[in-house]
Predict the 3D structure of the following.
Amino acid sequence: MQNIENDMDALFRKAVDQAPLIPATSRWEEISGKLSGNSTPSVAKEKINSFKKISGVFGYLLAGAITLTILTTFIKHHEIISPDKTAKRIGNPMNEKALISTMRIQDIELKDINLFRVKKKTSVISYLKNENKTNFLSDPINAEEGKLNGGLSLNMNNIENINLFQNHKSIELTDSLNNSHNSSLVKLNSFHNSRFYLGLIGGPQLSQIKHQGLTKPGFDMGLLIGYRINKKISVETGFLFTKQYYFVGGKYYNSVTGVNTVNSMEGSRTAFEIPFKLNYYLFQKKSGGFFISAGVSSYVGVNDKILINVGEHPQPPPQKLDYGVASYLPSYLNFSLGYDYKFGKSTRFRLEPYLEIPMSSTAGNTININEGGALQVFNAGLHLVITEFIH
Amino acid sequence: MENITHIIQGCIRKEYKYQKILYELYLGFALKIAFRYMYRYEKAIDVVHDGFVKLFNQFPNFHPGTEADIEKMLFAWLKKIIINASIDELRKGQMLPEIGGIPEYVWEITDSNNDADQKLLYKELFVLILELPPSYRTVFNLYTIDGYSHDEISKMLNIPVGTSKSNLSRARMILQKNVKKLEVVKLCRI
């Protein structure tokens, strides 16, 4: 028995040594770019990949910088002003965006109103009368009491929000202690202190490859952060976990062996989506508004599992295909439309059907069903979003 | 033709020209090793490329001995790198099902003389190794072809020594069974 084994081992050793395997054609260019620290001229493809990675990172840094700038601007506008600084600033009234150029509060003809936040939950209203003399509805230094003409007396420390309504030329003051407000003032076009909002997002999603039909729906869910630039436009980004399912016929399996016995392939994907989009409100009513949006999405941490249904072998175990490398480059164009329901003072609920169209092939928008090819995945779904403005 | 010592020195200095010469010189050798472990030819090529990248990146750490055995050392080092790269690839478990057979274009059989028959036999034996289940194939290659001990295999594959032995035994049984199917005439020609 030992001799047979030895003979057989020797036979296979000889066979391995002498097997007439054709040496592969040189693909030096594929590896030269991966070599570190040498003077190898990088291959164009590698250069492009490096460029893509760098530009992707810079893209996100740029987006981060823009967000930071907006945030900084926001904070500056809403900073807690010490009494000294307040006194200084009140001497030179600022034209806050919240201001309404001409307002009438009972019999006072106001030319300008400034809104200052002295400290948390304390606001000071100043105004310019026709003679351009600065007047205050409350003492900026000792803002304990604010008195509006007509006898409405308020403890300014308890004021949480001051909403200015252009249409009715009136001011609504909300008392933070009992959360009540003067009901005689009608709400219209309320102004929010904050333009930032946070949200929870999620919903069903369908994925399709090569018009091969749909399989069971996937889903996505995550967090959303947005900034309302003005009444019409807002920008949003977020971080979503995505689970997708897809199906594709066996003819798309490009076997390197030339023998194709695959009937079909079913796959699933988990990934993280980072969207960046712009919302444009077509019209708004008191209860909400219609909007359309467009943007891009990056898929990172992509992980695919593909089940290959083969004729001869009914169902081999699922084969895991992992790209390993995340692509931070945007890989999808996003389009959506939706309706934003407003309820409460700053809470909104949104229904938003969307479509994701793959851009040029990246790891984020393709599945690699074999060594030879990558197929692009189209996604569509419905997002349910609940948002809350940050105060 | 450049001297191998000269090429190696160039690679240690990370010079593009010498790296390319070495790659083209040993590509066939490396591919033959990787293809024993990887069922798919294209995947074997990928493994070889990964192996060469590791080799060139680590070349400054290569300490050539005497001129007489410098090439042997390089062969042994490259072989070890390719085997490790193959095992890493197999360990990832990212392989597609090993179906569809080995493509004919990877073999060089054109003549119709005795030598061609022998080459055909070697090819068929090589394919028998490839057709083993991956775990049996890996152990068979490591033990029988590449000369590793069961202890070493156990550490490399992170499996018990007993498993290594039983995998080898089962691999041999399958191979024996399949060898019998080959024509006896062809066996006699060896």
Remarks:
- Residues 16-37 of chain B form the longest helix (22 residues).
